[in-house]
Specification:
The chain is an alpha/beta fold and 395 residues long. It folds into 2 domains: 11-80, no CATH class; 158-388, no CATH class. The chain has 17 helices and 8 strands. The protein has helices at residues 10-18, 23-44, 89-92, 96-110, 116-124, 132-138, 142-150, 207-219, 234-243, 253-261, 266-277, 285-299, 304-317, 328-331, 335-348, 357-377, 384-388, and strands at residues 59-69, 72-81, 161-173, 176-188, 194-202, 227-230, 248-251, 353-354. The strands form 2 sheets. Strands 3, 4, 5, 6, 7 and 8 form a 6-stranded mixed beta sheet that branches. A two-stranded antiparallel ribbon has the order 1-2. Helix 4 runs antiparallel to helix 6.
Length: 395
C-alpha cells in the first residue's frame, strides 16, 4: 500500500498540545494514536473507510487501554480488528514480562482457576476484556525465549562466584494446590558481570534436586566455581560440596543471624543483634572470632541455644574472609538474590495461584531474563581485578 502523506496542520496540533494541562503527555498520546492508526491500516491493507481489493480484515470499533509511561498515564483508544485482534507494537515491545504476566492471567481465566480476583488483576494491566487472540498475539514466542535462556550454553566462560536460593509460589499441580520451588542460581563471570545462570522448578529442596541442578549447569558448560553463597539447607550444602570439590561455601550471614535471633526474646533482641552484627563487621577473621567470643561470654547463661547455634555455624559464615580481594558486602550473604525474589513477588502476587507449572516457570524466567540483560550492560558487580586475585583454597 502506498504511503499517504499526512496533511494535518502541524501548527494546529502543536497549539492544541500547548493548550493541554500536560502538553508533552498530550503530544505523546496524539503520536500513539497516529501510530496505531497507521499500523492497523498497514495490517488490514486499507485506510479507514477506504475501499480496497487488498483488504485483509476490517476495523471493529475501539477499546480503552491504559498505558503507564514516564510522562504519566494515558488512556488510549486502541482499534479493534476482526480475525486475530490487534495489540499496538509499542505495547508488545515494551516489556516481555508484562506479556508473560498477561498470559498467566489468561490461562488462569480459561482454566477457571480464578474469578473476581483475576478480572481485577487484568484491569490493573489495562485489559478490560480478556481475549484469547489478543493474548496469544502478545505472548507469541515467550515460551521459546524463556527456554532458550534457561538452557543456553555457558561454555568458554568461568563463573568464580555463585549465589543460590529458592523462590516459592502456590501452583496448581496434579489437581491440587502446592507450594512449588524455583531454584535460582546467579553467578559472576571473570569480568565481574552478574548473570542469571539457572531457573529450575522443583517439587522440593533436597540433595537430589540440588545435585540435579548443579549437574545440569555443568552439562551446559559451567566451570571455574570457587565460592558458593547460600543458606544452610543441608541438601544444598551436600550437593554443592560434591558438585564443586575445592570450592568454598559461604553461609549467608543474614539467614544465619535470623537462625540465632530465633532463640532470643523480643526484650533483648535489639541489643543482642547489635553485638551479633559486629562479628561480620570485623576487619579480619581473628577479630570476628574474638567478637563472637565476647558475645558468648555475655549471654552464655541467658541464651545458650542461641550461642550453640552461633558456635555451630560461625566458621561457615566467615568463609568470605578467605577471599579478601572480594567485596565482603556482596559475597557474605544472598541479599542480591533476596532483592530479586522480592521484585518477582511484587509482580506475582497479583496472580495468587498459578494455573500450572509452565506458567510459573515462564513468568519467573522472563523477569529474570530482563534483569540479566540489564546487568550485562550495567556496572560490574565485582571488579575484574578482585576476581583475578582469588586464590583457590588449599585442599
Amino acid at each position: 500500500m502506498a504511503y499517504q502523506k499526512d496533511t494535518t496542520n502541524l501548527t494546529e496540533i502543536l497549539l492544541e498540545c500547548m493548550g493541554a494541562s500536560d502538553p508533552m503527555l498530550h503530544m505523546l498520546e496524539w503520536l500513539c494514536d497516529r501510530l496505531m492508526e497507521a499500523e492497523v491500516s498497514s495490517r488490514i491493507g486499507a485506510e479507514k473507510n477506504e475501499q480496497s481489493s487488498e483488504r485483509k480484515s476490517y476495523r471493529s470499533g475501539y477499546r480503552p487501554r491504559r498505558l503507564d509511561t514516564r510522562m504519566g498515564t494515558m488512556y488510549l483508544m486502541v482499534p479493534k480488528v476482526r480475525n486475530g485482534g490487534y495489540i499496538p507494537f509499542f505495547v508488545t515491545e515494551r516489556k516481555r514480562s508484562e506479556a508473560a504476566l498477561i498470559q498467566v492471567i489468561q490461562e488462569a481465566y480459561i482454566h477457571g482457576v480464578s474469578t473476581r480476583k483475576i478480572e481485577k488483576a487484568a484491569k490493573k494491566l489495562g485489559i478490560e476484556n480478556l481475549s484469547r487472540s489478543q493474548v496469544s498475539e502478545m505472548t507469541k514466542g515467550l515460551n521459546e525465549q524463556a527456554e532458550a535462556f534457561r538452557n543456553r550454553s555457558l561454555e568458554g566462560v568461568n563463573y568464580p562466584v555463585l549465589w543460590v536460593d529458592a523462590l516459592y509460589e502456590k501452583v496448581r499441580y496434579s489437581g491440587r494446590v502446592i507450594s512449588m520451588a524455583i531454584l535460582v542460581v546467579c553467578g559472576v563471570n571473570e569480568s565481574g558481570q552478574r548473570e542469571v545462570l539457572a531457573i529450575e522448578p522443583m517439587l522440593e529442596e533436597s540433595s537430589v534436586t540440588y545435585t540435579h541442578l548443579f549437574n545440569k549447569l555443568k552439562e551446559r558448560g559451567l566451570s571455574g566455581v570457587q565460592l558458593v553463597v547460600s543458606d544452610a539447607h543441608s541438601g544444598l550444602v551436600k550437593a554443592m560440596m560434591e558438585s564443586f570439590p575445592g570450592a568454598g561455601w559461604q553461609r549467608c550471614k543474614v539467614h544465619f543471624m535470623r537462625n540465632i535471633l530465633a532463640h532470643v526474646t523480643n526484650k533483648d533482641k535489639e541489643s543482642f543483634a547489635k553485638l551479633l552484627k559486629l562479628i561480620w563487621q570485623a576487619p579480619n577473621k581473628p577479630a570476628a572470632e574474638q567478637q563472637a567470643k565476647v558475645l558468648s561470654e555475655r549471654y552464655e547463661k541467658k541464651y545458650p541455644k542461641a550461642l550453640d547455634t552461633l558456635e555451630e555455624g560461625l566458621a561457615d559464615s566467615l568463609t568470605y574472609y578467605d577471599y579478601p580481594s572480594l567485596d565482603a558486602r556482596k559475597v557474605s550473604s544472598t541479599n542480591m538474590l533476596e532483592r530479586l525474589n522480592k521484585e518477582i513477588r511484587r509482580r506475582t502476587k497479583v496472580i495468587g495461584i498459578f494455573p500450572n507449572q509452565e506458567s510459573y516457570v515462564r513468568l519467573v524466567s522472563i523477569y529474570l531474563m530482563e534483569y540479566s540483560e540489564d546487568w550485562s550492560v550495567g556496572r560490574a558487580y565485582l571488579s575484574q581485578k578482585s576476581i583475578a586475585q582469588i586464590e583457590p583454597l588449599a585442599a
